[in-house]
Each structure stands twice: as C-alpha cells, then as structure tokens.
Amino acid sequence: MSGARIEVLCSNEQEEVEIDTDLAAALAREVLELRGVVTASELSLVFVDPDTIWELNERYRGVDGPTDVLSFAIEDGEARAGQWPDGGGKDHPAILLGDVVIAPAIARQNAATRAGDRGHDGSVADEVALLIVHGILHILGYDHEIEAEAEKMEGLEGALLERVYAPLKVAGTRGLAG
Prior knowledge:
The protein has helices spanning 21-34, 50-61, 104-110, 124-139, 147-171, and strands at 6-12, 41-47, 69-73, 95-102. It is α/β, with parallel strands linked by helices.
C-alpha cells in the first residue's frame, strides 16, 4: 500500500439491509489505494433508502426512478486520481474525492440477476461490494456510456473485486451486507 492517508467516511442512513460499514470502508480504501490514490484523500460512502436515492437520481440526473448507486465526484482531472496538479503534497489539504451513494434495498432486488458475473455469488453482500467498486471507479473518472469503456470498467471491477473484496469477504465474520 502507498501509505497515503485515505479517509472513507461511511454512513448508513437506511434500515432495510444490514451493512457492515467498517468492511465497506475498508473495501473502499483498498480500491482507492490500488487505483493509485497517493495523497491524503477523503471519500464519503453513504447507504440510503430507495426514496432518497430516487430523489437524488431525479434531482441530479433527471431520471424519475430509483437506481442502485450514484457517484458525485468533487475533483476532476489529475486531482481525481489523487495527484496534486501543481506537484505539491504534504502541505496541501486533503483531496475531497466525492460521494458514493448506494441503496442497499435496490441492491437486494438486483443481486440474484448478477450471480456468476465477475465472481458474484448472487448475494446482497456481493452486490453491495460491486456497487462500492463501481461508484468509486466513476469518482475516479471511469464511465460506461460507450461499449469499449464499459468493457474496460467491467474488467477493472472484476479484477478489483477479486483482489480486494474476495479476501475481505473470507475474513469478514458476517459479510458486507445481509
């Protein structure tokens, strides 16, 4: 690991699905480190109910309906990857990467449809882990609007889940979500 101070602020603001916020934060930190975030950075990971994500989806994307994950990047360009554009570093404030908002109840609805995809076992825990990685990749500038970009992003999601989430899943006593 890079030794960078990466802070993941994890908040569970819903009650429908139990979430292990410590494990979720650990997954997010590991993914950020593996993607080269090298300076002090901060990411918010928020778990919300379907109504809240519906409102956010409508407000910020103009889509009337719920979704499973939304990403709101604060920085862009080089800063998004944890690099200081001016070459600075330790004397600068932390980079605020952004917010990843996940609706575990929607994840629960979608989980079974992904069984067998990218090592997914069809569980809610695997779906939430996938959404954490997916949301972080959006924060870091990845997208899936064009087929070639989607394939690249999906491949990276699978690799990150295998490298980071699989060991956390084995070590976790009750799983990420349930």
